[in-house]
Specification:
2 copies of one chain form a homodimer.
Chain A (H helix, E strand, L loop, with lengths): L11 H12 L16 H16 L3 E4 L5 E5 L9 E5 L13 H17 L7 E5 L13 H6 L5 H5 L9 H8 L17 E7 L4 H5 L3 E7 L1 E10 L3 E2 L11 H17 L6 E3 L3 E4 L5 E2 L2 E10 L2 H21 L3 E10 L2 E2 L2 H14 L3 E6 L4 H5 L5 E6 L15 H19 L3
């Protein structure tokens, strides 16, 4: 049993084994997983996890957009549930851990409590959310967004993939179009929601910490930028008579970097996509389109980045005798997780004696949407070289176990032991 | 007749009409011309020009690589020919004037002399060179390069297009595989070669000069550059842990511009082609490939640019925790045209009362290869907005006539009136 000196721990081997078992469904030759939302592979993965939920005694509930919840009763029938979860859909060349870890960790918490015969005061729930990755159907984080009321269930069900097939039709086909209204939880909204996830970045590894106490998630503002000059023959056009869209764009890319560095440590600026026209070796580019991805932990910070970009881009375009047009295409507001949930994660890590550090999530997660309707916190564990969305995504069994132990104790703190 | 006060002039309307007639062969709906080397359209264009040559009394000679020469006898059977020419092949979406102008101007010189009954001491020749554009078959400026001995005729004839068809087979098919050895001219190498061409740049228009006296052509050094970093998720990867290949490449592109500006007025630096991997909006690029096109009027200048680039690229790559690899893929040496030919062009412009300025050619031309084996000069006339290799390529009839008048008098000065 658990004592202050020797706290309860999950079964690290069982957790690892369930991750490896789940990874066989949609396994790729390079060691990754392809289990795209609402495909046959997703159905097979869902069926497996639901079977495990039921074997662990969880009561399974499915909502209108295919989110699945497994509930373990508490001793207080009036108490609101303490929940955890993540997603089991993957990128086309995804890994074994992104999302899957959070769901298997939740299952392992339940199995551990079952094995130890521990009852909680509040009910516990383990969820997996539909289509977090957004590979086949947009928007990303579809299920948790609908659960939080950001999207309407009907709108979500009418979203189409590239072949014109709707989310609703695919949910029907694979048997996961439930009847529970989105956001409806027996006894009322979650008392707390925790999500364990691989970091998908290099910070924990760089600082050699097995546990990241996630204080919040960066807001995101994405832009499409078009720089227009005049294409001309690279030889006969002297430097001073050029309208070189690539030169202007290159200087803007450097400005994106400087703007992000000015917002250290949380500001991030990335140019990931570039298209050059006509893209010919001896023609001065007449047009360059590129993307900007700005992230920051405060809306004030994002506003400063937006203004700095608009001001500098206009100057740099004029400097190169070009024009520039900007369109904002995505916006996610910054999120600061609930102080009580963050404290429970930190307390659990301390109780367990794990080295830990406060981190922010640079990526979006289902937890960010759930945060809109319930107190929420996240637990990060390191992943190898910070790589995810990749078949070589990897994580150490000891780190995965540490994160799961932290999840166990954070949930127990919020739910109370009966 | 010609007097110092009223020098002989070509027939501007006839020159314009022959340009418009030739432009009907391979005409495109947008007003341009598509007459790619050694296609049926090229054959039709060649047949038309040869017919005009013969109607003008020129003796036609075809060499092993399909270069065509029309010869007008001089009074001195020992004298070496004074020649002119250019090309009639075009880009896929080419214009009416690039190349075609130089050939029609040469024909107009002959027609003018015929109409005035003027005999020259030296023979005159009008040439058109095979495959200047290099669109279907490489290398570019194939015919003049073979004429100058830079390429072997057999090597050229075995060059293949994308479908595996050889230059030799296509020359046979269209009836232009001649028997004259490349570089073989009756009476010996040209005494002088002049090429009239649209500028393909904006300088003459910007300075409002109808005539450019071309003093030389820029040397060219082209490179393929590969910047390698590490692709990573744009959100969770802090700025200081990135290996952002796009950031490094953007700074290198700015350096290319500064290196060229340091070599004003003749230095030119262009990044025309860019490829980003994986080119996804929210992924830090792991690799960027781009091209560099450096031009300058001296080899010393090109050497400085090369060294500056290598030094700065290495520093910029290291600054961004990336690596860089450079490969030089093309080299054309700078060319200074023959002082006597340049003087004849300038003298003709002065004699005719045309505003003129010394310019350099930023692009390659057949004249640059011919310069290797004979004294050579070029005449530029303005083209609208400096645009060529484009269906909207345009030039004013009065400028084309002026350039042709300069060609006439430059050739007469070198050939001598009998």
């Amino acid at each position: 049993m658990s004592t202050p000196a020797n706290p309860l721990r999950i079964d690290a081997d069982r957790l690892w084994q369930s991750l490896m078992d789940l990874a066989r469904i949609g396994a790729t030759p390079k060691g990754g997983v392809c289990r795209i939302a609402l495909t046959d592979e997703d159905k097979a993965g869902r069926d497996q996890v639901v079977q495990w939920f039921q074997e662990a005694g969880l009561a399974v509930r499915i909502d209108e957009v295919g989110n699945v919840f497994g509930r373990r009763a508490g001793t207080d029938p009036q108490a609101r549930a303490v929940a955890t979860g993540s997603h089991i859909d993957t990128q086309p060349t995804g890994g074994k851990f992104d999302g899957n870890y959070g769901v298997m960790a939740g299952l392992e918490v339940v199995r551990t409590l079952n094995a130890q015969g521990i009852q909680t005061v509040a009910p516990l729930e383990v969820a997996f959310w539909t289509n977090e990755e957004g590979t086949r159907f947009t928007p990303v984080m579809m299920g948790s967004g609908a659960f939080a009321g950001v999207f309407g269930a009907e709108d979500i069900c009418s979203q189409q993939d590239g072949a014109g097939i709707t989310v609703g039709a695919e949910l029907e086909r694979i048997g996961y179009r439930g009847t529970v209204a989105c956001g409806d939880v027996p006894g009322g909204p979650f008392a707390a929601y925790f999500e364990a996830h691989i970091e998908q970045g290099p910070v924990l590894e760089a600082y050699d910490k097995p546990i990241g106490v996630v204080s919040g998630a960066l807001g995101q503002q994405w832009y499409d930028v078009t720089v227009t000059g005049m294409d001309a023959h690279a030889g006969p056009t002297p430097m001073d008579l050029r309208h070189d869209a690539m030169l202007a764009a290159a200087r803007m890319m450097d400005a994106v970097n400087r703007i992000a560095l000015d917002e250290a440590p949380h500001g991030r600026g990335t140019v990931g996509h570039v298209q050059v026209l006509p893209n010919s070796r001896n023609v001065i580019p007449g047009q360059v389109k590129f993307t900007v991805d700005f992230r920051n932990l405060s809306q004030d910070g994002l506003d400063r980045m937006d203004l700095g970009m608009r001001t500098q881009f206009a100057q740099l375009a004029a400097q190169c005798q070009c024009s520039v047009a900007l369109e904002q295409v995505v916006k996610f507001e910054p999120c600061v997780f609930h102080a009580d949930c963050v404290a429970s994660v930190r307390h659990a890590a301390e109780q367990l004696g794990y080295a830990h550090m406060d981190v922010v999530s640079g990526a979006g997660h289902d937890a960010v949407y759930v945060h809109g309707v319930s107190p929420t916190g996240m637990i990060f564990v390191p992943c190898k070289d910070g790589i995810s969305h990749n078949e070589i995504e990897d994580a150490k069994a000891e780190h995965l176990a540490a994160g799961c132990n932290v999840l166990l104790h954070a949930m127990l703190e919020r739910a109370g032991i009966a």
